[in-house]
Amino acid sequence: MARVSVKIENHIAQVTLTRADKMNALDSDMIDAIIEAGESLIDNADVRAVVLSGEGGAFCAGLDVMSFAAMAAQDPEEIAMPRTHGNANRFQQVAMVWRKIPVPVIAALHGVVFGGGFQISLGADIRIAAPGTKMSIMEMKWGLIPDMGGMVLLPHLTRSDVIRKLTYTATPILAEQAETWGLVTELADDPLAAAMDLAEQISHKSPSAIRTAKQLISYAEENIADPDAVLLEESRVQVALIGKPHQMEVIAANLQKRLPVFKTAT
């Protein structure tokens, strides 16, 4: 059965987890389907924003129980150690692939966002959650640690003591608390509609400037201890945008009080 659907319309890719009968819990097939969906968008020049959501009553309930049993029968080193996707293993790629997509990814969260599902959401640029959504770093419940990219992504979003408390206890928190800790960007009664509205706003911005902005933000995060390098990179990528067709079209559209029309993504 299909685990993930991808629909591209008006330059927005809607990626939907479609295992609703299992609260979109992650099994082996779903892990592969999520990776395939994400990787299919990396080189798609027509896409300007991505909305990631889950069908049914939850965004994603994490790894399903049957997958634990299957993993227990395998050599853990063979599962975890091979770098199958650049610097990541297969499980890490499920979350990290969204950071590798060159356009903004907006996650619409509802129901439960547990374990691997929580780490997938961290891979998005922006997280919009319904009030009352439950979120948890669930791995400690099963005697494990978060190992799907969470420890790369979490330190950019919240404090060390918050990460430690959530990791040590596996206690679920509500989206309202997650927002105060920086783990949720904003709350919305209909997070999918809010995510689509935001994606539409982004789709009308300069595609090259948006892609450059995402790349520059990542560069700044990775080089936070080297402000000289970040300042130089700011200047370098700005030079590549000034006077180019996308910027000139933005200027013309602003002066003519209309939406810009962009021919290509680069």
From TrEMBL:
InterPro entries registered for this protein in UniProt: ClpP/crotonase-like_dom_sf (IPR029045), Ech1-like (IPR045002), Enoyl-CoA_hyd/isom_CS (IPR018376), Enoyl-CoA_hydra/iso (IPR001753), Enoyl-CoA_hydra_C (IPR014748)
Keywords: Fatty acid metabolism, Isomerase, Lipid metabolism
The keyword Isomerase is annotated on this UniProt entry: yes
GO function term, MF aspect, one: isomerase activity
One GO term of the biological process aspect: fatty acid beta-oxidation
Pathway: Lipid metabolism; fatty acid beta-oxidation
CDD domains: crotonase-like (cd06558)
Family: Belongs to the enoyl-CoA hydratase/isomerase family.
The protein's name: Crotonase/enoyl-CoA hydratase family protein
Origin species: Shimia litoralis
Taxonomic lineage of the native organism: Bacteria, Pseudomonadati, Pseudomonadota, Alphaproteobacteria, Rhodobacterales
